[in-house]
Amino acid sequence: MKKLRKRISLIILAFLVLTLGLTGCQTEEAINKREKTLVISTFESFEDMYRKNIFQPFEEKHNIKIVLELGTNSQRFKKLKKDSKKKKPDVVFLTDYYAMQGVEKGLFEKINRKNIPNMDKLYDVFKEPLGKDYGPAYAISSYGLAYNPDKVKEPITSWSDLWRPELRGKIALSDITVGAGPFLLMIAAEQANVDIKQNEDKAFEKLKEISEHGVKFYTKKYAEIMNEFGSGEIEVMDIYNYDIEIARQHVPNVKWVHPKEGSYALMETVNIVKGTKNKELAEEFIDWLLSEEVQKAQAIDRVESPVNKDVKLTEEQAKWTIYGEETIKGLKTVDLKYINESMDRWTKRWNKEINPQKNN
């Protein structure tokens, strides 16, 4: 009997050791699984194409899981700024002047460029738009105009055409809180023949001229503006080149305009969030994002314009994209720090003088 009890005790002990060992393995496996999850804060638009061309191939290559946090620049940036115990993303996609705010507020990790060799393949202007310690631009967009040629008989060629009397009440433009809003102030200053840094009063006065003539300033209701563009209620609108395909669904023969004074460049940047435990994996992801393979796939699908110099496109593939060194050199850039310093002041003036109905 004693021998039987001893044998049973040994069996129980062996079972407990095995159970604890398996539990330990499962815990370690769970930890490893968590460590192999990369959380990316990104834009809602073109989510399917991002998954196809960027996220899924990276998941398969590295045997990880990518979790997305979706929203507008403003929504995601506000969330990033909050002091919260909730897990923050590892990587964040933001347009350039939101990203500059992130740099100024210390929200990003400094990157190790040696771990991102594809940065050397970028056009120079995209390598360090936020400074050498921070992430690159992974895509470029051009801000210009679109119009319906069935409605607008005299072609649009210039930013000054926004002030044409016959277009009163037929124009839709970005609100100051939308990515392109600050560009409109720059354009108004140019039309008023002043430097906005020296005389922003003149810029606001010039923009007020068309705001008083029924311009619709849109914030989050971009889909509604597109519907109005299709119905003919809106004949001219500001637009990025990557939205032309959407505009064509509403106005098949839409005309895209690079105004003769020049189009404005909007850079889409990628950065690593401060405090991440996945910095090296995040750097590998950025390198993948900048690769010729990804950049070309995104361009062919007309999601984004490439910043990698090695990408070669046919004439058809390059349609609606910002492609090639000469085209990129022709884009206007802005002083991101100056915009950030001015945005609170500009927004207050805008809501009072340019788009007061937004507050009604």
Automatic annotation (TrEMBL):
Record-level GO BP terms: thiamine transport
Any one cellular-component term (Gene Ontology): outer membrane-bounded periplasmic space
Protein name stated in the entry: Spermidine/putrescine-binding periplasmic protein
A Pfam family per the record: SBP_bac_8
UniProt GO molecular function: thiamine binding; thiamine pyrophosphate binding
PROSITE patterns, per database record: PROKAR_LIPOPROTEIN (PS51257)
InterPro entries named in the record: SBP
Alphabetic keyword roster: Signal
